[in-house]
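Hey Z.,

So I finally got round to the BIS(adenosine)-5'-pentaphosphate thing we talked about over coffee. Here's the setup:
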Amino acid sequence: MRLILLGPPGAGKGTQARRLVQRHGIVQLSTGDMLRAAVKVRTPIGRKAEAIMARGELVPDDVVVAIVSDRIDQADARRGFILDGFPRTVPQAEALERILAEKGLRLDGVVELQVDEGALLKRLASRIAEMTARGESVRPDDNAEALKTRLDVYRTQTAPLIAFYGKTGLLKSVDGMAPIDTVTAAIDRVLSPEIAVRGG
Ligand code: AP5
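And the result:
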């Protein structure tokens, strides 16, 4: 199964992707996680991305498209994957279509998590608390100023993907305001025809 999880910052994409990984034995491809790993070990991409990410802006399309294309080729992605945080712009979505076509693959669904903007700051505050409790360092973009930019970027550059995938018939929208388990159950429900076709 090959899926995209779409939603604003803090909508619960990572939370739900990790559950889908456990349920379906497929991998989570989070461009945010991959970029943070590159920042941590200071690769050329990481050094380029660091300040952009801290401001809450988007890393250039060509950089993330190349990362995703390489990652899809790895052996663990053969069974399927969940794209978490990619695509984020219409040019990224168009590039993904080309990449998948070249590799003879197709998408099974695009799940949009719908969450009120007012809830997002609260969710990020709870993530800061969770990370601090685990002794992890807080993300440099988890603050009110960067969140404002991330939301503006979502509205202007990522939200148009809802219409983009609406036209393909792949889009399924789920109420992301519900408790985490309820959201997971709703995702399972909207995906059940795809799961049935693919046998798991
Ligand atoms: P990325 O890491 O993708 O960040 P994001 O999209 O802003 O999303 P988050 O990770 O903040 O939130 P989430 O939706 O995964 O929510 P989570 O499950 O953690 O990207 C970071 C940056 O990298 C970007 O700003 C950009 O600079 C760059 N980047 C990445 N991809 C890129 C791309 N394709 N192109 C260009 N640049 C790119 O949940 C959040 C909190 O809420 C947690 O505490 C969780 O426990 C809680 N929670 C989750 N679900 C619920 C629920 N249903 N009810 C209550 N609480 C909940």
